[in-house]
Amino acid sequence: MEGxxxxxxxxxxxxDDPPLDALTASMQRAGRxxxxxxxxxxxxxxxxxxxxxxxxxxxxxxxxxxxxxxxxEVWRLAPRYDAGRGSVRAWVTTIAHRRSVDAVRSTQxxxxxxxxxxxxxxxxxxxxVEGVLDSIDRERVQxxxxxxxxxxxxxxxxxxxxxxxxxxxxxxxxxxxxTVKTRIRDGLIHLRDEMGVT
Length: 198
Hints:
Layout: H1 6-10, H2 20-31, H3 35-57, H4 60-77, H5 88-120, H6 125-146, H7 150-161, H8 166-173, H9 177-195
Helix pairs in contact: 2-3, 3-4, 3-5, 4-5, 6-9, 7-8, 7-9, 8-9
């Protein structure tokens, strides 16, 4: 099949098959090494094979690759084709289905192997330590917040945990913006003292 670009033909092939006996004759000639006869089989069945493969593998790029592999296998196995055991169409589509399933399994196996590699990779020590320290710090801050006067605690929670600006906190608490700034500053000083931060 050298010199034949199967994918150029793939999208321009007429979906109608030649009569069964002509297709069988083409396959038998292909089995004797006739490349032109294989091209006839390709022209007759490429659209059908591509459609079948596309339904199984989903990816258009992978479907084209598998379709090419199917016709390479048809070329390799052409001498074994036995018209008494079934039509050329059935034989080729059986090869196509088997190749499609193999491609899906191979792709899934690769994904599973990659995921196992990720799962088995030891966690970065620094990441674990940072996570533990962050958790401890959060707990200390939460405990320290409970010791603040309610107005300071509310202002800090709205600003730092709620993500609000001073102006938004002032509106939510219905007090002047300067008062909110003072409450937050005083609350942070109390938190620092409570947590023993210098």
